[in-house]
Amino acid sequence: MQRRSFLKATASGLVAGGMAAAAPFTLRHAAAQDRSGVLVWGGNLSSGLDPHAVYDVPSAFTRANLYDSLYEYSGAPPSAVPTLVESYTVSNDSRTFEFTLRDDVMFHDGTVLEADDVVYSFQRVLALSKGPASTFSPVLTSESITAVDPRTVRFELIETFAPFLSALPMVAILNKELVEANTVDGDWGEVWLSSNDAGSGPYQVVEGSFVPLDRLDLKRFPGYFRGFSSPNPIEEVRVRPVKDDATRIFAVLSGDIDTTYGYIRAEDHSRIEEAENVRLSREPAFRTFLLRMHNGRPPTNNVHFRRAISWAFPYDMFIDLLLLGAVTRNPGPIPASLWGSPTDLEGYSHNMEKAAEELELAKADGVDITAPFTFLALVGFDETEQAAQMLQSELRKLGVTMTIEKALWANASASTNALETSPQIWAHWGSSYLIDPDNWIGQFYSRAALGSQRGSSWYDDAEVQDMIANARSVLDQSQREAIYEEISRAMVDQAVDVWIYNSQTFRAINTRVQGYKPAAVGDAVALREMWLEG
Amino acid sequence: MISFLVRRLLQMVFVLFGLTLLTFALVRIVPTDPAALLAGENAGAEQIEQIRARYGFDRPVHEQFVLYLGQIARGDLGRSLYTNREVATDLAQRLPATMELSLVAMGLAIGLGLPLGVLAASQHRGVVDQVARVFSMMGLAVASFWLAIILQMTFSLQLGWLPLRGRIATMAEPPPDITGFYTVDYLLTGDLAGLWGALLHLALPAITLALPGMATISRFVRSSMIETLQKDFVDYETAMGYPRRILVWKYVLRNSLSSAVTQIGLLFGLLLSGSVVVEAVFSWPGLGDYIYNGIVTGDSNPVLATTLLIGVIYAVVNILVDLTQVLIDPRIGFSK
Predict the structure, then answer these.
(1) Which of A195, A251, A417 has the CB atom closest to B164's CB atom?
(2) Nearest by CB to B298, which of A243, A414, A449?
């Protein structure tokens, strides 16, 4: 045999052998993809698992399924209903609440949930001063939460806080003993909890499975006190976030993931709806989109100038042409589908004549309408830039010059910390953290919000501030509703911001996923109510 | 050689100091507020102030820089404000993923780009040369994200041959952590099915990342080879009847490799930076994905540490390139 022939024969043999050897591995590899009883959640992954340190849309998924709170949101529109609480009493001055806890709740390690765990959890929220803390710190101190007995916990509020029960779902109850055992240098177990769980929820973390930005595995907790909706519940959940828009659609269409996150782009809707194995879930959401105007600096500190901007924005074109009608117009600060938003509130529409009239009034007030001002759009959120461009085009017709700059969310948000650096006008979404009008009024427009991203309008009208305080102190919902309606009308009249729309959530879901119900807050879907077919 | 290495390592320390200073200045000059990031979207002004004081963000920038230098000198890369985990732990998990992808991509780029360049040069202006030129132009012109999507649509969605995303299949278990390179770890533990799965997952991102490098290498090898082929020694050896194949692949190629090796060193840096896009499209949990998230969330410690790490890798690769050049052409010597 010649040398060349020998080499060729050897190479061919190696290739053939390699392919033959690879074949069974391919089959074995495919067999490893048997996913019965396993849900692959393709939504965004929380940056950490500590429910008191992270409080955003993705973290609601882990908080809702790893933990329980005293109350949770239920129904449509959502309201807070008891979860860990059997009954409660409230004092005449509405400042002292006593909750009797259920006696059948166990943490994942088998420890029974008691009042001490509740006290510890709230004290931890206040001590960390992150996530949900800002809602409770004005009305609670560490000493004002006490365990009366193992099943009774008492909250003594510094002042009446009407949204108190509505805010309770924000705080996950932790296993005190377990967290304390993993506390290092007085860190309240923060480092340990960022990758582990200490909850009583229907699912628990598979140890060591959490890799931020990449993966998390959950397994069912058979001892969950409320049980599961199906006799064949989901046994395992593998969270596998997909960052790229195109890959996300490919992944759900190919069955690689069972669900996507809730912000599927309008241009992808038809493709999903045409697919046989996937459906598009259109869900009402309490997530408003608004342009924040700096009420503390010229020219937007002039009410006529702000009204001119409000009349100049092309709402219908933005919603119908750009967003393909996937959202609904929201004329005021509170989502129109929630109580507290006046049903007859018309707000502003695209009317260039009225905008020109208001500009004349602004000029009469001494505003230099030719002086350029800047709109800060957000990098990676194209919608904010598109809104800026549309507004810029309309204002140009009126002789007003608005320039557009772009910034990362982190930078834009940081610039709102001071009156001088806060953007003249910028856009962001107002997500729901508690389902109560206070989420969009008190937390956006009260004095306490100044110097934070949510208070970036720098709005400080004394009369409205009194009304906000009043709405927080009255317990009767019909009275509060009337106050919030009055606040909404006053703020719309003063054109504090440009309120544009209330979102819908669009999530692509594989048809094998059954029992899925939209979440009231963020990604807080209830896995225990879901099951898989096939 | 030892004095050469010592000299280069000392230079590397200065370069890394400069890199750290520059990156630190950049992440601090941009108006990001790490305290606001830590406090969360729902935080009030009072909360943000408390956190700023607790983490020392209220100190002067130069003081923060000195503290940071002391920290990294002790091997402490800090904690991610976003994940609340040690940055060193995150990097230890993510570096092997990026290195594995980059090395496979580099292997593909060299393994295919080098022979293509040689063939194109040895058949100068022939069919192979024309095809190689078109291929090189395409490789350099095609955007990575576009190529990635086309590859995904073709090989994952249409043909179903290769996985769409990720480092391993959703239901597969990662190998025991020995080197962090999944292919190596599966091999070391004798899990050949796992190895095959990891190789399949590497295919599309590696091809996407390799294509521009492959084009660059083939172009450099081709032009160097054409130049070398015109030298006297080639005419002499040809006249002496030396076999053309040995002449081209052994002597002409060796004399032409110097510039290509320099390019390979530079390309490694490009592969690491190019991984930002490729990792995002293929959900590849590497450094690119990590630093991108650090930038958009204003999380400075991961950005600083990843930049420093990439700087170290880049500097080491360049030292290796210099050593390789001396091995290829001893006339260069270690004194330069």
Answers:
(1) A251
(2) A414
Long-range contacts of A31-34 (CB under 8 A, 24+ apart): A32/B169, A32/B171, A32/B172, A32/B193, A32/B197, A33/B169, A33/B170, A33/B171, A34/B171
Domains of chain B, start order:
94-282+313-328 (1.10.3720.10)
Instruction: Give every strand in the sheet of A145-149, ordered side by side.
Output: A85-90, A96-101, A152-156, A145-149
Model pLDDT, residue B335: 61
Task: State the ipTM, two decimals.
Answer: 0.81
Give a yes or no: residue A184 inside a domain.
yes
DSSP for residue A44: P
Tell me how many domains chain A contains.
2
pLDDT surpasses 80 at B281: yes
Is residue A43 a part of any domain in this protein? no
Confidence at residue A298, expressed as pLDDT on a 0 to 100 scale:
93
Which residue range forms the structural domain that includes residue A475?
A: 285-504
| Residue at a domain's end among A157, A176, A194 | A194
Residues in chain B with CB shorter than 8 Å from the CB of A185 are none
pLDDT at A49: 95
Please list every residue in chain A whose beta carbon sits closer than 8 Å to the beta carbon of residue B36: 410, 413-414, 417, 452-453
In a domain, A205, yes or no: no
**CA gap A258, A81 in Å, rounded:** 29
Q: Which of A35, A187, A213 would you mutate first to test chain B, the one with the most B CBs within 10 A?
A: A213
Instruction: Report the C-alpha gap between A49 and A47 in whole angstroms.
Output: 7
Q: Which tens digits make up the pLDDT trace of B38-90?
A: 666 666 677 777 777 777 777 888 888 888 888 888 888 888 888 888 899 99
Minimal C-alpha gap between B311 and chain A (Å)? 23
Shared-domain flag, residues A328 and A184: no
The domain boundary residue, chosen from A174, A194, A214: A194
pLDDT tens track for B150-200: 999 999 988 999 999 999 999 898 999 999 999 999 999 999 999 999 999
Flag whether residue A134 sits within 8 Å of chain B, measured between CB atoms. yes
pTM flag (> 0.80): yes
Nearest alpha-carbon partner for B172 in A8, A323, A418, A34 = A34
pLDDT at B294: 87
> Hey, are the CB atoms on A417 and B282 less than 8 Å from each other?
no
* Minimum Cα–Cα distance from B300: chain A residue: A410
**Residues in chain A with pLDDT values less than 50:** 1, 4, 7-8, 11-12, 14-32
Nearest CA among A112, A106, A189, A116 for reference residue A152: A116
Put simply, the answer to whether A33 touches B169 (Cβ < 8 Å) is yes
Distance CA B212, CA A238 (A): 35
The distance in angstroms from the start CA to the end CA of chain B is 11
Are A215 and A511 in contact, with CB atoms under 8 Å apart? no
Residue A33 domain-assigned (yes or no): no
Which residue of A28, A243, A422 to mutate against B (max B Cβ within 10 Å)? Answer: A243
Q: What is the pLDDT of residue A22?
A: 42
The distance of A312 to chain B (nearest Cα, Å) reads 29
User: Cβ of B42 and A454 within 8 Å?
Assistant: yes
Residue B168 near residue B182 (C-beta atoms within 8 A): yes
Give the 3-state secondary structure of residue A446: coil
pLDDT in tens, B283-306: 999 998 899 888 888 788 899 999
A54 in contact with B, Cβ within 8 Å: yes
Give, in order, the Cα–Cα distances in Å from A267 to each of A273, A506, B152: 11, 12, 20
**Which is it for strands A373-378 and A425-430: parallel, antiparallel or unpaired?**
parallel
A3 shares contact with chain B (CB less than 8 Å): no
Chain B interface, best mutation among A240, A244, A458, by max B CB count within 10 A: A244
Pairing of strands A497-510, A71-74: unpaired
Q: Do A25 and B295 touch (CB under 8 A)?
A: no
